[in-house]
Amino acid sequence: MVDSHWTTKLSYTTEDGILIRGYDLIQLIGVVPFPSVLYLLFKGELPDPKIAKLIDALMVASIDHGPGAPSVLAARTAASGGAPLGAAAAAGLLTLNKFHGAAVEDSMEAIQKVYTLSDGQPDKLDQAADAMVAEWRRAGRRIAGFGHRQHKKIDPRLERLFILAKEAEVPGIHLEAARATVRALKRSTGRDLPINIDGATAALLCEIDFPSSLSNALFMVARITGILAHVNEEINQMPPMRRIDPVNHGYDGPPLRDLPTNL
Amino acid sequence: MVDSHWTTKLSYTTEDGILIRGYDLIQLIGVVPFPSVLYLLFKGELPDPKIAKLIDALMVASIDHGPGAPSVLAARTAASGGAPLGAAAAAGLLTLNKFHGAAVEDSMEAIQKVYTLSDGQPDKLDQAADAMVAEWRRAGRRIAGFGHRQHKKIDPRLERLFILAKEAEVPGIHLEAARATVRALKRSTGRDLPINIDGATAALLCEIDFPSSLSNALFMVARITGILAHVNEEINQMPPMRRIDPVNHGYDGPPLRDLPTNL
Amino acid sequence: MVDSHWTTKLSYTTEDGILIRGYDLIQLIGVVPFPSVLYLLFKGELPDPKIAKLIDALMVASIDHGPGAPSVLAARTAASGGAPLGAAAAAGLLTLNKFHGAAVEDSMEAIQKVYTLSDGQPDKLDQAADAMVAEWRRAGRRIAGFGHRQHKKIDPRLERLFILAKEAEVPGIHLEAARATVRALKRSTGRDLPINIDGATAALLCEIDFPSSLSNALFMVARITGILAHVNEEINQMPPMRRIDPVNHGYDGPPLRDLPTNL
Amino acid sequence: MVDSHWTTKLSYTTEDGILIRGYDLIQLIGVVPFPSVLYLLFKGELPDPKIAKLIDALMVASIDHGPGAPSVLAARTAASGGAPLGAAAAAGLLTLNKFHGAAVEDSMEAIQKVYTLSDGQPDKLDQAADAMVAEWRRAGRRIAGFGHRQHKKIDPRLERLFILAKEAEVPGIHLEAARATVRALKRSTGRDLPINIDGATAALLCEIDFPSSLSNALFMVARITGILAHVNEEINQMPPMRRIDPVNHGYDGPPLRDLPTNL
Asked: Are the beta carbons of C4 and B87 separated by less than 8 Å?
């Protein structure tokens, strides 16, 4: 008979409760914020309190991008055919793929490559970035995280994230590696390809030592929230089988307003 | 030509940025915690600060239940066939269905029915619960959220959540409605069917006026986090096409440990 | 220890080969047509040879409806985000839901109800249809399979299917029950609601005693074929992340042509 | 305004009916068998009648492999959590991935490479196979379609398919290329790695000029049939939330029986 026993390092349910990476789930509830427990599950350890806020910020930055995102359109289309909440959200999740939301992992790889080639020495970053850019271009590989697709102006989320990174006192070397990559891309291609939101997210995830194989997972958890909200609106407010125009849409929610002061 | 223009009340992307229910996403990043932005997207308004912590707690309580949950088994099986992260997680999400994680919405309906029948008056809750139980049993409908399936002892998460609810100063009337339902079930069936984690979650979501059609969505966002962690472990640590035994498994992560003191 | 052994009546793999409902798969290959093996798997017995052709015809009739079907739009949108073949097809499959392709099962139930109420006697069908229509309308239930949504003229597929049914020498009583339902709907609503393709499919599946719980499955197998063809075109011929207009599209394949004569 | 018009070469719905690659769907119904219409959709042309039977045979050969296939286990697990037919089948479809059912496309590539390197000349096939094997092994790439995983004896489906290929009068050069690959693998690795069912399917799809990007699609259409049958059994015959043992199962359907004589 085959021994089919297998083990996990993540979590376990016993008669006494649920263990998450060695912590009793009960002790986490109401004490450790959700994004930090996500980090614990993905990484194996709780984040430093300074870092916790940065993880939360990265999740908020990705929570929703409006009704025109392909993942939202696919999910709303499924809902319009009659799919219930979870099935329609799954259609959206499947759309978060190579060209839509999956750039962060690739971008982390590029930035980590520059970091490694530089031996972690700031004055070698430019040379290392040149080497990485040359190698990836030779291999016909797109260097994700640089160059703006949608925002003509600088994406204001970036500046916000960089401020938070400073407040979190991250070492900053991976951010420098990303900036060195911008310069290397300029030298190599002649084009201005600034860090975009994927590249900024990638650099910050490198800074906090987030596992790159789960960087897309962080994005998926954040974005499925928006997808679910859109599916719920589609199911409850829209006629079934409607033609969902991907461009010709608008917003009739509350107009721009300030944050409440009692946060 | 058909006018295909449509609108959403949720969110919008413009040249100037991303609007979430009227708030500029930039202003939310690093200021409003992720679970509160989820509440904003789902409900339309930011939660009261007292309530924010309770939402976070409910998400942490659902984040992962160990490797034996059907959603995890389905997701790991898909990953074992070669499905990448998102596709395998989608298989898990599809498994979070009628019998697995979807009890909260039904339970909210039962509790809200008791509340409505009582006209919000505490002394009428028992009578209202008797009426609801009689009606639902007549219709052959299961009253979700009561009676323990897995935990023989009282689920310690409940006590924790009730303490947090008290700290959040929720009105408490829906919790009372849930307790009246336990008494009504005892009178009607002769059986002890205590509030379980689904019922407690339902009562608390009623307390904070969470939209019931999105109660399962809250659970999905939380639980897909655990599913993604399990899929990542399967992809990176396990041989492909292995037989995934649903019972014969164990835990070899860190042993039970105390929370760090610097949280 | 729990005995977890379970059994299936469908199929099994042994050292000697694969058993499908008692038949050796080897003996089926190249002898029994695919739609008949589908029937065998779903129903438990091989179809009568007269019936086999009708099942094939029902599958061909559903294989593809062009690029504007919501299932195709959702699948193409997922592919446009970078989802590979199977994941994008899954998004399409999830869209085949309550309002899109799932009418056949409901329609079978209506027709079977008329048949049952008539005790299988042709002269009682009108009375039985009146009773069914009255009961379903009282319950606020839509009677699926009647009334045209898309085709203003009579859908020519119907006539073709009815001819094939005649050639297959089906008893015809369920087709009569469907026609009686049209008359009952006219009496009850005053409106002309002719049998549509879902209703015709339903009536024919009743005629060949196809399990109603798998009528949508027959449709799914057929339609996923078209979905996969569209996904493949999207992946290989279209730019990623394009806006997929649900209405403003056309056809540039071969113009209308006659069937080859050597079939 | 952006011109969002797009076109497809596959199919179109007009007021007059549905066009499939230039043929009127009505004319196909009941005349052209379902697997041939699948070929038409995927390939652009109807198959030669000799070839049609071979396509059907390849689909029957893949329709179901019993309850232990990971795709069936994932789909049954989703159904056990309460997922309806289509959602559970989608979980199964997502499991048909890199390690489970996706070998045919890779195997076609290997065989086509040998064919191309040989300039289509039979006496150069061995040399060409040596070159392909050397190149792929150097690149660390698995040569799919050779070597048996599950069947210790020769898979009897192969012999059946080869006989049908002969009856269909296929040129046979790709089958020879596959056999040359077996010899080259023996020379290169010292191991006996016979053509398996994936390799045989690949060779035959090469023979009939089936588009390799859709070879997995052919398999998906066939296998989702079995998945749907298993999901239906799970939903209707099994208790919810059961532990689905991947090994400890059996068959209680009809015992081995002969094909009826009136086919």
From this structure: no
Measure the CA angle with vertex B60, ends B56 and B63; round to 5°: 135
Q: Which residue, among C227, C167, C204, C211, has the nearest Cα to C55 in the 3D structure?
A: C204
Q: Do C90 and B87 touch (CB under 8 A)?
A: yes
Largest CA distance in chain D: 66
**Percentage of chain D modeled with pLDDT above 90:** 86
**D90, A87: Cβ pair inside 8 Å?**
yes
Residues of C in contact with A82 (CB under 8 A): 97-100, 102
Q: What is the pLDDT of residues D170-181, one digit of tens each?
A: 999 999 999 999
CB pairs under 8 A between B and C: 14
Q: How high does pLDDT run on average in chain D?
A: 93
Task: Find tokens 């049998």 and name the residue.
Answer: C195
Distance CA B96, CA A195 (A): 38
Query: Neighbours of B (≥3 Cβ pairs closer than 8 A)?
Result: A, C, D
Tell me which residue in B28, B56, B85 faces A34 most closely, judged by beta carbons. Answer: B56
Residues in contact with D1: Cβ distance below 8 Å, sequence separation at least 6, in sequence order: none
Residue C77 has pLDDT above 80, yes or no: yes
pLDDT band at residue C1 using 50, 70 and 90 as cut-offs: very low
Verify whether the Cβ–Cβ distance B77 to D70 is below 8 Å: yes
CA atoms within a 13 Å half-sphere pointing along the CA-CB vector of A240:
12
Do the beta carbons of residue D18 and residue D25 sit within 8 Å? yes
CB contacts of D234 in chain C (<8 Å) are none
Residues D53-62 have a mean pLDDT of 96
Counts of helices then strands in chain B (DSSP H, E): 11, 5
pLDDT at B152: 54
Q: Which residues of A touch C81 (CB under 8 A)?
A: 70-71, 74, 95-101
Report the residue of chain A nearest C78, measured CA to CA: A95
* Residue with tokens 């990007």, as numbered in its chain: D213
Residue B146 is given by DSSP the state B
Task: Tell me the shortest Cα–Cα distance from D123 to chain C, in angstroms.
Answer: 31
D126: its two tokens: 């061995």
What one-letter code names the amino acid at A75?
Answer: A
Token representation of residue B153:
């002892």
Alpha-carbon gap, residue D45 to D31, rounded angstroms? 15
**Residue C2 confidence (pLDDT) above 60:** no
pLDDT tens digits, A200-228: 999 999 999 999 999 999 999 999 999 99
Q: Do A8 and B68 touch (CB under 8 A)?
A: no
Nearest CA in chain D to B96: D81
The closest CB to that of D2, out of A2, A86, A247, belongs to: A247
- Contact (CB<8Å) B90/C86: no
Using a 10 angstrom Cβ sphere, with 0-12 exposed, 13-18 middle and 19 or more buried, the burial of residue A239 is: exposed
Distance CA B181, CA B106 (A): 14
pLDDT in tens, D35-55: 999 999 999 999 999 899 999
Q: Which of the residues in chain B have pLDDT under 70?
A: 1-3, 149-154
Whole-complex ipTM: 0.95
Query: What distance in Å separates the CA atoms of residue B136 and residue B82, rounded to the nearest whole number?
Result: 44
Model confidence pLDDT, tens digit, residues B102-142: 789 999 999 999 999 999 999 999 999 999 999 999 999 99
Residue ranges of chain C whose CB lies within 8 Å of a chain B CB: 2, 4, 83, 86-87, 90, 246-247
